[in-house]
Amino acid sequence: MNILYDERVDGALPAVDKPALLQALQAQLPDLDILHAEEDLKPYECDGLSAYRCTPMLVVLPHTLAQVQGVLKLCFERKVPVVARGAGTGLSGGALPLAKGVLLVMARFNKILAIDPAARTARVQPGVRNLAISQAAAPFGLYYAPDPSSQIACSIGGNVAENAGGVHCLKYGLTVHNLLKVEILTVEGECLTLGADSLDAPGFDLLALFTGSEGMLGIITEVTVKLLPKPQVAKVLLAAFDSVAKAGRAVGDIIAAGIIPGGLEMMDNLAIRAAEDFIHAGYPVAAEAILLCELDGVEADVHDDCDRVRTLLEQAGATEVRQARDEVERVKFWAGRKNAFPAVGRISADYYCMDGTIPRRELPHVLQCIAALAHKYDLRVANVFHVGDGNMHPLILFDANQPGELERAEAFGGEILELCVSVGGSITGEHGVGREKINQMCAQFSSDELTLFHAVKAAFDPHGLLNPGKNIPTLHRCAEFGALHVHAGQLPFPDLERF
Amino acid sequence: MNILYDERVDGALPAVDKPALLQALQAQLPDLDILHAEEDLKPYECDGLSAYRCTPMLVVLPHTLAQVQGVLKLCFERKVPVVARGAGTGLSGGALPLAKGVLLVMARFNKILAIDPAARTARVQPGVRNLAISQAAAPFGLYYAPDPSSQIACSIGGNVAENAGGVHCLKYGLTVHNLLKVEILTVEGECLTLGADSLDAPGFDLLALFTGSEGMLGIITEVTVKLLPKPQVAKVLLAAFDSVAKAGRAVGDIIAAGIIPGGLEMMDNLAIRAAEDFIHAGYPVAAEAILLCELDGVEADVHDDCDRVRTLLEQAGATEVRQARDEVERVKFWAGRKNAFPAVGRISADYYCMDGTIPRRELPHVLQCIAALAHKYDLRVANVFHVGDGNMHPLILFDANQPGELERAEAFGGEILELCVSVGGSITGEHGVGREKINQMCAQFSSDELTLFHAVKAAFDPHGLLNPGKNIPTLHRCAEFGALHVHAGQLPFPDLERF
C-alpha cells in the first residue's frame, strides 16, 4: 500500500544524535521503558490514520510523572521534538511520529484516581479509556457523556487533545464541555493546572484553549471530567425518506421545534445498504436516506417528544417512521449506524473517513457537490452524518492497490473539506486537524489568524518542540498550497459553481 | 467618599501628549465623537465598582467599525493604552479608565443584526443589552439564557469580556457556553473571527480564551450567541432551615440526585430580613437560611422533580417547604432574591459585593470563617449565594463616611477571596477580576501560571496596550503583595485555623 508521508516537516528539523539522546535517557531515567530498535518502533509508526506513516526515532513509555518530566527536560535541553500519543486511535494523524522526534506514549497512565458522586466528577490519568470512566461511574448511576465511536479503546488524554465528540454531543457537548480541570506538564517539564474544581476560573480560559490543541501546548498528566446521571429512558425513531433533501428538512424542523435529541444521525443509500448487509438492522434498503433520532430523559418527557418528532418527520415527507419496539430493537438500530464504517469496509478494499461540519441548511447543496466530486474523481462515497450538529463523515471508497487511487481519495477529501469551509462550515467536527487536514487549515483561516495561532503556540512552546507539523500550518506551507483562502466568500470550486 | 485608586498602573505608563493625540484623532476621524473636557469625562471615571475611580484622558464613542479601527491604529502607533467599556455595569472595575489612556465606549454598537430561529442564533453588536436579545428572540419562542442581575442594562460585549453568569447558569452555563462566534479587532486594528457557526472550530479555541479576557486581548465588534427555546413551565420551591449547614446539605442532596434546577439560591438571615422588609416576598424572617429552587422544563418532568426536591428538602431538615402557588407568587419569591442587593443597601450606607466560588461541600466551613472575619473587621455581612454552583456573593456592610471603613471592607473582601482559594475554590464566579481582585490573583495562581498568562497576553498584544493593570497581575505586584500563594495547601489564615 502507498504511504502518504510529508517529508517537509521532518526535513526541516535539525539532526538529532540518537545514540547520545538514548544514552542520556537511560542514564538519567534507568527505570524508563525505551524502545529504540527498528522492529520495536514499527508498531508506533501510525495512529488511526494509517495512510500516513513514519517510524519514530525513539518511543518512551513512562509510568510516573517524574519520568515524563525527565523526558521533557532532556528533550528540551537538546531541542528534540516530542509527539504525545494516547491509545493511537485518532483519525487525523495527530499522533503521527517524527523520524527526528521522541514518541511519548502515555498509555500506562491508566488509573482512575477518584470518583466523587456528590460533586459528579471523575479524576483520572490520561491513559484511561473513555468507556472505562463510564464503567467506573456506573455504580453511582453516573456516566461520562462524550462517546466517540472508538470509546472502547480511545484514551481520555487523546479525547482532550482532539476535543473528541460522539453520537451524543448534540445534546451533551464535546469533550471541552465535559471537562473541569487538567494537569499538564509544559515543554520544560513544569507542572501546571488548567481549569478548577469550581464554576469559573479567573484569568484566561487556558483549559478551553488547551482542549483540542493536539499535543502542541503541553503534555496532559491528569484529567478531571464531569459526570452526568444516566437518563431514565431512551427511545429511538427510524424514518425513511425518498430524498436526502427531505431528510435534511426534517432535521431542521426537529431542532427548530426546540427538541434536543440525544442523537440525530443520517445515512445515505450506499451507507444504508452496506450497514444492512452487514448487521441486518432492519433498515429500509430502498430509502435514499434514513434518520435515526434518539430521545432520552425522564419517561413522560421522552414520550411527549417521541410523538412530536413523529409528527414532524411525517410532515417533512417521511415514507415510513418506526419506533424501536423495545431495547433490543433500539440497540439494533444503533448497531447499524455504529458499524457503518466497518460495513463500508466490506464493500471496498479501503475507505477514507472524512470529518467536516456544515450549517444544517447547506446539507442538500453539499451532498449534491459531493456527488459531483465523486464523479470528478471517479470514486464512490457513502455518507454518514451526525446530522443534528452538521457533522459529516463522508466515506470515500477506494483501492490503495490501484495506482493513484489513494492520491485521488486524498485530493477528493481535501475538496470536501474546502467545500465545508466555503458554505460557512469547518474542516473538522470531532477528529481534529492533525497532519491530515493541515493544508485545509489554509482555507479555513486567514494569515492574520494563523499568525495569532503561532503566537499563542509560542507562548507555551517557544521552540516549537511539541508535535511540530500538526494542526497549525506555517504561512510558508499555505503559500505553497496555493491561495485557497475563501473567507472573502469567493468559491474556489469553479467546476461546482453550477450547483 | 474615599476612593480606592491604585496609582501604580498609571504611574508606570509613559507620558502621553494628549493635545497631539486629540488633534490626530480629530483630523483622521472627523465624524468620531470625542470627549476631552474635564466635565465631560467625569461620568466615565468608574464602572459599577464605584469605589475605584480615575478620570480617563479621552473618551471616544465610535459608531462604525472604521472608527474603532482608526482609534486602535492611532493608539497603537503612539503606544497609547486603550480601555474598552460597554454599559459600565461591571462590578470588578474591569472598565476602570486610565489617566494616560483612551476609554473606548462601545455603547453605540447597539444593533441586533439577525435572529435566525432555525439555527437558533442571534448575531448582535456588542453594545446590545443582554435583555434586548431575549426580547428580540421572544416572538420565536426563544431566549438568551445567561441572565446577570444587571441584564436590563449590561451589554453583551461586556458579558463576553467578563464571561458573565446569572441565576440560571447552573443549568444553562456561563456566557462562554452560550456563544458561537465573536468578531474582534486586534490591538493593531485587524479584523479577526473567533469561533464559527458550526459545532467545532479547528485550531486553538481562541473564542473560549477570549471570553472572560476582560478587554486585554482585543476589542469585540460583533457577537453571535446561541438561543434556547423557552421552558414550558417553571416552578419554585422555598425551603426554610434553622441552620445554614442543613441548607447546604440539602443543596448537595439535590445535585447528587441528578436534578439540575434552573436556579438554586441561598440567603442567610440578614439577607432574608433585609429582602423581606423591602419586597414583602413572604420570606420566613426567623429562618437562619432559605433556599429557592426553581425547576423548569416540560410539565410532567417539572411536576416529578418538584416532588423529589420537596422530599429531599424535608429529609435534610427543612422546617418549612412551600411551592409558589402560581406565577404571581413565583415572581414574588424571585423578586426578594433579585432585590437582595438594593435591600441590603437600605440597611447600610454602603455595601461591597464580593464574588467567589467554593466547592459546595465547603459551604458551612466557609460561612463560619466569614463570620469570624466579620468579627475581626467589625463589619456586618449578608450572604447571598448562587449556591447550586458554589458562587457566593457576601455583601459587606460599611459606611464610607466613617474613616477607615472602606479600607476595612476592602481588606475583609480580600480575605474572603483568599479563603475561597484556600478551600479549593476561586476568586471569581461571574464578576471577573478587573482591578478589584488583581492582588488575589497572586493567591490563585503560581508564578509559572501567571507567566504563561502574560505570554498569552503578549501573543495578542505585545506592547500591553489593551486594558493594562487589570485581570493578570505582574509578578512584581505579587511579590509586593506578599507570598500569598496557597496552591501547596498551606493556609494563609493563621487566625482562622481554629475552624
TrEMBL record, chains A, B:
Domain FAD-binding PCMH-type: 52-230
Acyltransferase as UniProt keyword: no
Keywords, alphabetical: FAD, Flavoprotein, Oxidoreductase
A GO cellular component entry from the record: glycolate oxidase complex
Top-level taxon of the source organism: Bacteria
E.C. number: 1.1.99.14
Family matches, as SUPFAM superfamilies: FAD-binding/transporter-associated domain-like, FAD-linked oxidases, C-terminal domain
GO molecular function: (S)-2-hydroxy-acid oxidase activity; FAD binding; glycolate dehydrogenase activity
Names of required cofactors: FAD
Family annotation (PANTHER family): GLYCOLATE OXIDASE SUBUNIT GLCD
Protein name in the entry: Glycolate oxidase subunit GlcD
Source organism per UniProt: Pseudomonas donghuensis
Gene, per the UniProt record: glcD
